[in-house]
Write a structure and sequence with these properties.
Two copies of one chain form a homodimer. Chain A is α+β, with helices and mostly antiparallel strands and 456 residues long. Chain A folds into two domains: 284 residues, Aminopeptidase (3-Layer(aba) Sandwich), CATH 3.40.630; 123 residues, Alpha-Beta Plaits (2-Layer Sandwich). Chain A is 35% helix and 22% strand. Chain A has 14 helices and 18 strands. In chain A, the strands form five sheets. A six-stranded mixed beta sheet of chain A has the order 1-2-6-3-7-17, with helices on both faces. In chain A, strands 11-13-9-14 form a four-stranded antiparallel beta sheet. In chain A, strands 4-5-18 form a three-stranded antiparallel beta sheet. In chain A, helix 1 runs antiparallel to helix 14, helix 2 runs antiparallel to helix 4 and helix 12 packs across helix 14. Chain A is globular and about 80 Å long.
């Protein structure tokens, strides 16, 4: 009986926690940093690790498949006739680790301490991938799976999934499924089971401002030509108005107005002002004053400076007037905003604002639109019920500030919705030094996924 | 007879050019970068090289003398009774070489090509030091020197000479002289013999802006807290008004108004708008519109961004909201401006302008006031006559945009004026990749220094 099967699977999961953790440590020790060419071999190691793990679970047609850049790992198990096909998505790549000096442990030597596992990727998202595989292992130990599954693990999520859309288009039949389970979203807090139904899009740029042909002696031309680092700062300063609004022309044209209902929903989230003050350690928050922090993150687009570089940056002094200055700049987009339109708005902004004293170049590095998932679907209902059993609490439904380009691709290319879950916490330091995973929450997550599969 | 001695010295100089060049190549091959701790041993090698060369010339009391940081090389030759004592100043340290990728030759493997020698320090100022030593060698080959000389070679000029003032105070008797010959200034053009009578001061800062305690995921807090890279850009943008005026409160209070005479003098310099367009390759100049480029460089203070660093700066993308952002910022000061006052003005600016959403720290790395040399002195007259003979042209008298802190120290601590010369050209790429020295001008400079010593 299903009840018995479920209990057996949960029992196995509880008894096998040490081995699940060890599996995650193995996976997280592979430095699969996708943005860094020098980690090319590690990318392939991580893909191979997953393929081996899937093979070992008894999955079929396991394949590491080439794309224009980093490979996709595919597998399937289709022996539950009449049951839905769940496409399980994950990414095996991780963020860079810089500044490495701020890590208290080796980011690729996963280290347990108290209730946490410290490692790059522990939370985002190798931990989530291993949670899904551990849930499946727990079921498969004694019984066949109660659903059909396919796997799509990519290696480019942290660089905007540049070659995934094309690969998906070329493999639409292979990827045919009823919906996608994507555990790359997180929880609002460890006692708040969370279902994410909205994600922001992302468009990422590199802006370069050029001044003199060479770096020059600041005493020989300073005050006579426009310093490109200063000119870049002036352009950046002009990208927001005094109220924190982005000034790219037309940037807000497609942004939906929040209804009273939506605002009431946001008001119930635990994302309060004091929570962000505590999380970040800043003395005062910033941003559009007419929206709450939860609204700004969930329903408003942003423009952020991700990096700055110009001239002399070592210790000491060098009186150089730099030849150029660079900024990494990205916009989080809300549904209906289009990355290419924002690219055009940025170019219009620069054409209008850049002075004749400098030259600029803008490169769009990646772009993906935002998405909102339909809540009325069996996958969401199965997940909500699973979370309620494990946490003894109904989940909260949130629109998240982050971006998962693949969710939009699943909608537009495969025509399927994504069920977004995951067991990372806001305090996990993802994309930052000392990334960690809260293990008690992670173990609950494995239980929740076991329930989820049986609820379908 | 003096005439014969002079001719013999000039003959020797012309016959020994290959050897002088080899000597410069030896000296310039030592990577004595003063701002970089890892070049500590090279600093000492460069000092030792000079001491050996002075010893070889027959100078007396040659000594490498410790200071709080990099050593001073001292020597003297005082056997011309009744003749003036000339304190010959130079620095043996050089600027860093970054960005190294833009060098077409190894900066510390001095390379001759056509009329140029390419090397870090070839022009600024190992070439100038070797020119002075070569002129002395040419005279000493057949005759004693016609003047008394002392030498002060320091190793901290490129980092603002932080320990030189104290060392000078402790050695006032040793350094007693009639005036200083300082060949660390340059020429306006290769056919314009130049005497520099005014120098700007320099105060150099590092400004840090702090946001969240750690680097964070831009999708999780972007739009909710103030991005410190953006906040730094906003502060930098506010440091100049729309007319290119520095906005630090009180910055221009002590700046002298230019007289009609001075403006007429500046108008005769070859530092025209088209010269700077050609030198830098920019499409349009920038700066205070009511002053000419020559006036802006010679008589107006500036604030320049020398470096910017924040967040992710590698190839590719990382969606980080950085925890902090840094700028290297320096001001060129005109006579009567005080570095400590400018430091206070900068702090007042930041106190007034920095928003409550971020925290800032300002470090003053070095500071030295500007200076104007009295033109009515025997050293200047001797140099002017020497240049006129060699170039068949009267020198132009200029106030230079750069800063040589030691000139102010010589005035205030030793009570002596400096005769500022040098045979570098504006196109020498000093402080930049591919620094070079124009050898035909350098050889003329050696001749001019021989004349100069005989003219005293």
């Amino acid at each position: 009986m299903t009840k018995t099967n479920l209990d057996q699977a949960l029992d196995y999961a509880h008894q096998t926690r040490e081995s699940f953790l060890q599996s995650l440590k193995d996976f997280a020790s592979i430095p699969s940093v996708s943005t860094d060419q020098s980690h090319q071999a590690d990318i392939h190691s991580a893909a191979a690790w997953l393929a081996k793990r899937l093979e070992h679970l008894g999955m079929q047609n396991v394949a590491v498949m080439p794309t224009d850049m980093h490979p996709v790992v595919y597998a399937e198990w289709l022996q539950a006739p009449g049951k839905p096909v769940v496409l399980i998505y994950g990414h095996y790549d991780v963020q860079p680790v810089d500044p490495i000096s701020l890590w208290q442990t080796d980011p690729f030597n996963p280290t347990s301490a108290g209730e946490y596992l410290f490692a790059r990727g522990a939370s985002d998202m190798k931990g989530q991938v291993v949670a899904a595989l551990s849930a499946l292992e727990s079921i498969l130990k004694s019984r066949p799976l109660p659903v059909n599954v396919k796997f799509l693990f990519e290696g480019e999520e942290e660089i905007g999934s540049p070659s995934l859309a094309r690969w998906m288009k070329d493999h639409q039949a292979l990827l045919k499924a009823d919906f996608c389970l994507n555990p790359d979203a997180g929880m609002l807090a460890k006692d708040s089971p969370t279902i994410t139904y909205g994600l922001r899009g992302l468009v990422y740029f590199e802006l370069k401002v050029f001044g003199p042909e060479n770096d020059m002696h600041s005493g020989m031309v300073g005050g006579v030509i426009h310093n490109p680092a200063q000119a870049l700062a002036e352009l950046i300063a002009a990208m927001h108005d005094a109220n924190g609004k982005v000034t790219l022309p037309g940037f807000y044209d497609r942004v939906r107005t929040l209804s009273q209902d939506e605002r009431a929903q946001f008001a119930q989230l635990p994302n309060t002002e004091s929570k962000y003050l505590e999380l970040t350690g800043v003395k005062a928050l910033w941003g559009e004053p007419e929206f709450t922090p939860a609204e700004r993150l969930g329903a408003r687009p942003t423009l952020e400076i991700n990096g700055l570089l110009s001239g002399f940056t070592e210790a000491g002094q060098k009186t150089v007037l730099p030849s150029h200055a660079m900024a990494k700049i990205s916009c989080r987009l809300v549904p209906d905003q289009d990355p290419d339109e924002v690219d055009a708005q940025f170019r219009r902004f620069l054409t209008e604002k850049a002075p004749p004293t400098i030259r600029w170049e803008l490169e769009k590095i990646s772009g993906a639109p935002g998405s909102i998932t339909n809540l009325d679907q069996p996958g969401i209902r199965a997940l909500a019920a699973a979370q309620e059993v494990v946490w003894q609490k109904k989940p909260v439904y949130v629109r998240e500030g982050g971006s998962i380009p693949v969710v939009g691709m699943m909608q537009s290319i495969l025509g399927i919705e994504s069920v977004l879950t995951g067991f990372g916490l806001p305090e996990d330091h993802i994309h930052s030094p000392n990334e960690r995973l809260h293990l008690p929450t992670w173990y609950k997550g494995i239980d929740a996924l076991i329930h989820f599969f049986y609820n379908l």
